[in-house]
Design brief:
Largest sheet: 4 strands, antiparallel
Structural class: alpha+beta
Strand order of the largest sheet: 2-3-1-4
CATH superfamily of one domain: Dimeric alpha+beta barrel
Order of helices and strands: HEHEEHE
Mean pLDDT: 85
Number of strands: 4
CATH architecture of one domain: 2-Layer Sandwich
Oligomer: single chain
Low-confidence stretches: none
Number of helices: 3
Helix content: 25-40%
CATH class of one domain: Alpha Beta
CATH topology of one domain: Alpha-Beta Plaits
């Protein structure tokens, strides 16, 4: 048997629905380019990777990114509607065949509303 909605309840707006239907993931990436790549191949690959990364950031898929000092690695926050879409986005990276990727799904935390969030400049300011 269904209960009556709580007082003040309203159906979610489109914006609320989109926010609720998007999952966030912590992505840990180690890049392992083979030493056999020529200078030209590496340069082309870096250019393509940067362009694709920018596209994913502009779409709101890549939300924040940090470099890991001393390593060819990064840590990122990605948003996607589900794990299949996330995998497709990661696989679209030109470096994909040279990546070791660890994915951790993230869930909200009760203390989240009290935290200041990311410092300016760490998060892509994405507007749908």
């Amino acid at each position: 048997m269904c209960r009556e909605p709580a007082s003040g309840w309203h159906p979610p707006t489109n914006e609320e629905h989109e926010r609720q239907s998007t999952l966030e993931f912590l992505i840990e990436i180690e890049v392992r380019l083979p030493p056999t790549l020529s200078f030209e191949e590496r340069a082309h690959l870096f250019e393509a990777e940067r362009a694709r990364g920018r596209e994913l950031a502009d779409k709101g898929t890549i939300r924040a990114i940090w470099r890991v000092p001393g390593r060819f690695a990064n840590r990122t926050i990605w948003s996607a509607p589900d794990a299949t879409a996330l995998h497709a986005a990661i696989a679209s990276l030109p470096f994909f065949q040279y990546l070791d990727v660890e994915v951790t799904p993230l869930a909200t935390h009760d203390l989240g509303e009290f935290c200041p969030g990311f410092a300016p400049g760490l998060v892509v300011d994405w507007q749908p």
